[in-house]
Amino acid sequence: MPVDARWTSTEIAREAGRLEGRPPDEILAWAAAQFGAGIVFATGFGAEGCLLVDIIGRHRLPIRMIVLDTGLLFPETYELWRQMETKYGVAIHAVHPALTLDRQAAQYGARLWESDPDECCALRKVAPLQQALRGKDAWITSIRRDQTHTRASNRVVERDATFGLVKVNPLVAWRAEDVTAYLKEHDVPSNPLHAEGYPSIGCMPCTSPVAPGEDPRSGRWRGRVKTECGLHARPAATTFPLNDNRGAQ
Ligand code: SF4
Question: Is-catalytic flag, 203?
Fold first, then answer.
């Protein structure tokens, strides 16, 4: 998937340094202006995703929004999806896997998420996103650096080795408390499961509540070494300096 030739490594690094620490509304406005119809925001309606939907919706940014609908999301997540569309008057498009759950079970065995969660994520998340990003130049994510050690070196703008395009991470420098404060201040809907011990919410079979003091993502694929769906590969090491203004806003 060839990215617009202007997005060389040097240009990406320059924009990553310039936008480090800038507020997400500025980063999203920049992304919309740069990529136009060539950019997609993929959300799973985590707290960070809801925050970005709020900005895109309130500022009427022309950014296509999608959800990887694995067919295994919590009922509360589907309800939140409808609530966000209604509140902001936007369409958040469903992207479906090629296989229904029944066909997946017939081909790969029942409960693939138990026998081979990497394959399950590849079929129900990675391949559908790859399809949704075909012909695009860039995508937007909600990741933060302090969520996992594999995200610690992500930049505001970077080249995405997994999908071969530019990746924009407007909240990468934010902390969980910054997100919570924003949602409260702007009255943004969020998943009621957060209040029931689910700080990080994915598919039902692979998400469990966490106890106080546990790592917030420890409820994802609990008991396994797996920490990612495969959508967010660790970025290549960078050699350019960060700006000093990297605090969340
Ligand atoms: Fe399958 Fe679990 Fe990955 Fe969802 S999170 S796609 S159920 S392995």
Answer: no
Check pocket membership of 219 for ligand 1, CB cut-off 6 A.
no
- The answer to whether the CB of 19 falls within 8 A of the CB of 118 is no
Q: Using a 6 Å cutoff on CB, does residue 202 contact ligand 1?
A: yes
**CA dihedral angle for residue 151, residue 154, residue 156, residue 162, rounded to 10 degrees:** -100
Break the chain into its structural domains and give their ranges. 9-206
Backbone angles phi, psi at 165, to 5 degrees: -140, -170
pLDDT digits (tens, 9 = 90+) for 92-137: 999 999 999 999 999 999 999 999 999 999 999 999 999 999 999 9
Record the tokens describing residue 57, joined without a space: 């919706």
pLDDT digit string (tens) for 9-66? 999 999 999 999 999 999 999 999 999 999 999 999 999 999 999 999 999 999 999 9
Q: Structure pTM? A: 0.89
CA of 247 to the centre of ligand 1 (A): 33
**229 within ligand 1 shell (Cβ under 6 A):** yes
Under CATH, domain 9-206 is a member of which superfamily?
HUPs (3.40.50.620)
If you take atom 6 of ligand 1, which residue's CA is the nearest one? 121
